[in-house]
Each structure stands twice: as C-alpha cells, then as structure tokens.
C-alpha cells in the first residue's frame, strides 16, 4: 500500500512519531476536503504544519522540538532562521518554509483558527489542500531520491479512501448499503479506487446479468461523462463523476 511505502521513507529519516503525525494530519485534510468540510480541512492543516516544521528542524538543525513542547511562533524571524542555514537544500531553507507559512496564515487569519472577516470556504481549502500535498511530495522526494513523477504517483495514491460504505475483508469488497442503485454503487467503488475492472465491480455489486450491467448501468454513466469505459475492460471515474460520488457520500453520511 502506498501509505506504507511513504511511511517507511519518512520513518527511516524522521522517526515513527513524526511520520505518523504528518501522515495522519494529511489524511484528515484530504478526507475533510473530499467531503467539502472546509473548516475541519483547514483546521487540520495546523497539525500538518507543526509536523512539517519538525522535519525542517531535523534537516536544518539536526534535531526537532518534542511534541510535548510548543514550537516557537511561526514568525518572519523563524523563516529567516531557516533561510540562513547555508549549505542545506533550498527546499528545506526557503521553498517548504514559505509554503508552510502561507498555509499557516490562511489557517489562522481567514476565519478558521479564529473569528475573521472571511469564513472557511472552498477556495481557501483548495489552496491549503494542494499546498499541503506539494509539501508532502517534496519532503518524500528529497528523503527518497525518487523522481518528481514517481513521487507524485506515490502521493496521489497515499490515501486509500476506506469509506464506511465499503466493507473490505480478505480480498473481497462489498457495498454495505444494499438499497443503493447499481449506478451509485459503481461511482462509489470508482471514487474509492480508479480504474477498476468491470467484472470486478459487477462481482462486488453482485449484479448477475452481465449484458444488463454494461447496457443499463455502465453505458448510461459513460454517456453522462461520469465514467470512462475503456477497451481493456476497465472503467475510470471522471472529474464530473467524482463530484457526483461526493454528493452520494454526503447524503449517506449526513
């Protein structure tokens, strides 16, 4: 699993506690962002910044502040201290710190951490989510020596969305809500993991009639551009399909 590989990379260089807390906070940010819970997504960014700053301390100063102790306020003076560590890769000195500071400022000054003029919103949450994703990818890239493309692929797959709508056990999967229409079940499966084999999805859904599954379930989804049926017997979910799957999940969860 991709998270396991990323965790191993981070743990080997920064220790178990830092690796756990960094990835757990990233997972919370992504899950809340996917579910359009803007305020929790932005709030969790604060925990991510705290762990990422400890990684910077290890890289720049040789050791990190204990989680039992409070980090210094994230001031311009702290940024200057990072930047002045000559001979260290500029990502650790300049690029990552400035990105983290921007995340921190939005989290604290846009009505998230404190009452502000601007309420938590999709625009800010999107900026935070993709900035956090870049920071994580850059940390993993530098720690592993992987190429940018290989690192991005690893980060893109880091979170397996174990929705409580899907039961996974010993190599098989089932949609737990048996009242869901087959089309909705397909979108949920592809939202969880895409692409998927068509026959695998039919088996998971337990849709007995193979021709009808293609004609009555998949082809209408394809026609609506919610999924893409490929010639190799697999399906991908489209950006439009992801939005539709999120709506289904939100209705079921809340």
Average pLDDT level: 88
Unreliable segments of 5+ consecutive residues: none
Tell me the strand order in the biggest sheet: 3-5-4
* Count of domains: 2
How large is the share of residues in beta strands? Answer: 5-15%
Anisotropy-based shape: elongated
What is the name of the CATH class of the largest domain?
Answer: Mainly Alpha
- CATH architecture tag of the largest domain: Up-down Bundle
Helix share bin = 55-70%
| Spatial extent as radius of gyration | 21 Å
Distance between the termini: 29 Å
Give the total of beta strands. Answer: 5
Q: Structural class of the secondary structure composition? A: mainly alpha
**N to C succession of SSEs:** HHHHHHHEEHEHHEEH
Q: Profile the largest sheet.
A: 3 strands, antiparallel
Please work out how many helical segments DSSP would assign.
11
CATH-defined topology of the largest domain: Four Helix Bundle (Hemerythrin (Met), subunit A)
Question: How would you sum up this structure, described in words?
Answer:
This protein is mostly helical. The chain has two domains: 2-156, Up-down Bundle (Four Helix Bundle (Hemerythrin (Met), subunit A)), CATH 1.20.120; 166-253, Arc Repressor Mutant, subunit A. It has eleven helices and five strands, in the order αααααααββαβααββα. It has helices at residues 2-14, 16-34, 38-61, 76-83, 90-109, 122-144, 148-156, 182-192, 198-205, 210-223, 239-253, and strands at residues 166-169, 172-175, 196-197, 227-229, 234-237. The strands form two sheets. The chain has a three-stranded antiparallel sheet. A two-stranded antiparallel ribbon has the order 1-2. β1 and β2 (172-175) form a beta hairpin. It is elongated, with a radius of gyration of 21 Å. This is Abortive infection protein-like C-terminal domain-containing protein. It comes from Flagellimonas profundi.
């Amino acid at each position: 699993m991709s998270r396991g590989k990323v965790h191993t990379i981070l743990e080997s260089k920064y220790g178990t506690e830092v690796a756990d807390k960094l990835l757990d906070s990233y997972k919370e940010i992504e899950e809340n962002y996917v579910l359009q819970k803007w305020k929790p997504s932005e709030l969790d960014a604060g925990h991510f910044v705290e762990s990422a700053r400890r990684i910077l301390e290890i890289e720049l100063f040789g050791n990190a502040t204990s989680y039992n102790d409070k980090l210094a306020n994230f001031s311009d003076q702290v940024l200057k201290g990072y930047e002045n560590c000559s001979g260290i890769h500029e990502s650790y000195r300049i690029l990552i710190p400035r990105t983290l500071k921007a995340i921190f400022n939005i989290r604290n000054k846009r009505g998230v951490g404190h009452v502000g003029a601007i309420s938590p919103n999709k625009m800010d949450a999107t900026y935070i989510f993709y900035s956090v994703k870049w920071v994580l990818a850059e940390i993993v890239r530098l720690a592993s020596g992987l190429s940018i493309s290989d690192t991005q692929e690893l980060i893109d797959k880091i979170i397996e969305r174990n929705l409580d709508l899907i039961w996974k056990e010993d190599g098989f999967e089932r949609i737990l809500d048996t009242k869901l229409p087959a089309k909705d079940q397909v979108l949920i499966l592809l939202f969880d993991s895409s692409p998927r084999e068509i026959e695998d999805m039919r088996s998971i859904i337990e849709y007995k009639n193979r021709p009808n599954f293609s004609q009555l379930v998949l082809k209408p989804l394809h026609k609506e551009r919610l999924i893409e049926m490929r010639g190799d017997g697999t399906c991908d979910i489209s950006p439009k399909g992801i939005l539709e799957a999120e709506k289904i999940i939100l209705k079921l969860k809340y």
